[in-house]
Amino acid sequence: MSDKRHFLNELDELTLLAIARLGNQAYGVSIFETLERVAERPTSIGAIYATLERLEEKGLVTSWQGEATPERGGRAKRYFKVEGPGMQALDDAERARKLLGVMRPAGGVL
Amino acid sequence: MRKLSTRAILLVFVQPIVLVLAFSLLYRLFQLDPKGHPSFLDYLSSLTVMAMCFPFMVWNLKELARTFAKKRCASSAQRASAMDNGDQHPPGLAEYLLSFLPTMQRDPVMGDLEELYRFKYIQQGRTEARRWYCRQVALAFGSLLGRLINRSVFGWLARLARYM
Fold it and tell me: Cβ contact (<8 Å) for B108 and A68?
């Protein structure tokens, strides 16, 4: 595995977490709904696909084509899965947040 | 069935007329000597327009064929249900605009939006669902095409910088 570190923005991180949570059922609609309902983060399908494409280019996720269903107008789904570097990037982000959280003053303002 | 007929009329009659008009306009604009024989550049500009339009024409014809196949294969009960739900089809123009997206993202994005549109339609009604769909199409253009342009422009600049 390469030692290259990947830095995530907020939507990258939430999308990766949503994919990891959904397991084998992670495709556009389920990711969109997870972000809206669970993470309470309103977004658009276009923004999600732009994020997913960027994550795929970095090697953090992989995708494959699924089955076509009538309610989708006969179009195939595209499923996503978090790969090793993606999990590593999530761990790094979480660790950084914990470290910074420890240093946060009690009142929230310096 | 009404939706299908409208779409068929649009694809078979209106689209070729629009393309021919655009073709002739560009042909006139780029023709070097309107009284003389067409030059190589005239043919090139016309071919460029046709080449740009060709993927969209093919995609539209595929969509039409798919819709016909779906209608033909459906049993009578399914057909009745499809006719009841015929109004649940997303706005045609917004859907057509999505065909301009890069090939890799077109099918999954359109499928996801159609699936979500049906949910919205049932939950919030036709007007709200259509408004939501059009907004999503506009946002998809902003996100995906913006990214594509950024990547191609910056990729081109990076390649250029390598030789400097």
Answer: no
Across chain B, the runs of DSSP E, i.e. the strands, are: none
Look-up: residue for tokens 């067409």? B38
Question: Tokens at residue A24, please?
Answer: 């084998």
Average pLDDT over all residues of chain B: 71
* Interface confidence (ipTM) of the complex: 0.82
pLDDT computed for residue B19 by the predictor: 72
Are the C-beta atoms of residues A38 and A19 closer than 8 Å to each other? no
Distance of alpha carbon A65 from alpha carbon A73, whole angstroms: 16
Output the pTM of the full model.
0.62
Task: Specify the DSSP element, H or E, that contains B97.
Answer: helix B92-98
CB B3 within 8 A of CB B10: no
Q: What is the DSSP letter of B90?
A: P
Interchain contact, B109 vs A46, CB within 8 Å: yes
Instruction: Give the C-alpha separation, B151 to B34, whole Å.
Output: 40
Rounded to an integer, what is the distance from CA A16 to the centroid of its chain? 2
Ramachandran sector of residue B152 (left: φ over 0; alpha: ψ -120 to 50; beta: rest): alpha
A47 interaction partners in chain B (CB closer than 8 Å): 139, 143
Alpha carbon separation from A53 to A58, A85, B28, B102, B107 (Å, rounded): 9, 15, 41, 12, 14
